[in-house]
């Protein structure tokens, strides 16, 4: 009975890690394609800091899952105690890192307030300076979500102009309404927007828009995070049981 249980656990662990391996390989492949793609998609990604960061995160996650699945599959099917131990340690490190991130997010949750973002925007935003990551990221967010500032266009009344653009209007271009919500989208009426005509501006603040956009996904993300942690915990238990059962 003990041998049958061990054999069942071995194949279940192999199957579980095989899917992790496939998922990691897919993410790794997509990440590599996005970064080295010669058809021009790479330039689009490179021009957007959010997409550029996301591509490398995808690449890192794919590599990590690929290695994790490989170690788990080989360790289970070959009953290799060394590989199983590596698998256990790898999962344990990921588990502790995720747990630490959750604790830090809870401790520093007050830094995600409306006041904090407003202060940072007024301090670091350089308007249409796309060479500055902070400003470029904010512009991308405002264009994508059709919003303006943290609370609204009034946030930019105290934001200093660029040294070479003293005549620049208070409202940045990213706050102007577009026919299509992307950097390539044509402005509805750029001149009137920059002059302060409200009907051509995105008046709603990004804080409210983004909060409303992601509100429905908060519980789903929380449930998913708990599910991932539970899977990792069971994977560690399975690995250790298999490790102890191998003679």
UniProtKB/TrEMBL annotation:
Membrane topology term: Multi-pass membrane protein
Keyword check for Glycoprotein: yes
Keyword Aminoacyl-tRNA synthetase: no
Transmembrane segments: 12-36, 56-77, 84-108, 217-243
Subcellular location as annotated: Membrane
PROSITE patterns given in the database record: TM4_1
Disulfide partners: 147-176
Main location: membrane
SUPFAM superfamilies, A to Z: Tetraspanin (SSF48652)
PANTHER family the record matches: TETRASPANIN, TETRASPANIN-18
Protein name in UniProt: Tetraspanin
Originating organism: Psophia crepitans
The gene coding this protein: Tspan18_0
């Amino acid at each position: 009975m003990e041998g049958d249980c061990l054999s069942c656990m071995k194949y279940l662990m192999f199957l579980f890690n095989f899917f992790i391996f496939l998922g990691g390989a897919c993410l790794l492949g997509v990440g590599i394609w996005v970064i080295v793609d010669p058809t021009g998609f790479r330039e689009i990604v490179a021009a957007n800091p959010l997409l550029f960061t996301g591509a490398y995160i995808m690449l890192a996650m794919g590599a990590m899952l690929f290695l994790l699945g490989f170690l788990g599959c080989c360790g289970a099917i070959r009953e290799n105690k060394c590989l199983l131990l590596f698998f256990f340690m790898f999962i344990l490190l990921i588990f502790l890192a995720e747990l630490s991130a959750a604790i830090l997010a809870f401790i520093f949750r007050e830094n995600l307030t409306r006041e904090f973002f407003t202060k940072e925007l007024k301090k670091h935003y350089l308007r249409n300076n796309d060479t500055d990551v902070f400003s470029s990221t904010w512009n991308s967010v405002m264009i994508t979500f059709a919003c303006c500032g943290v609370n609204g266009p009034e946030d930019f009344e105290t934001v200093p102009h660029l040294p070479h653009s003293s005549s620049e209007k208070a409202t940045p271009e990213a706050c102007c309404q577009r026919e299509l919500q992307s950097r390539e989208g044509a402005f509805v009426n750029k001149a009137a927007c920059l002059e302060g005509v409200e009907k051509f501006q995105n008046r709603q603040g990004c804080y409210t828009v983004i909060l409303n956009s992601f509100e429905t996904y908060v519980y789903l993300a929380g449930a998913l995070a708990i599910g991932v942690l539970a899977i990792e915990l069971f994977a560690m238990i399975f690995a250790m049981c298999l490790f102890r059962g191998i003679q």
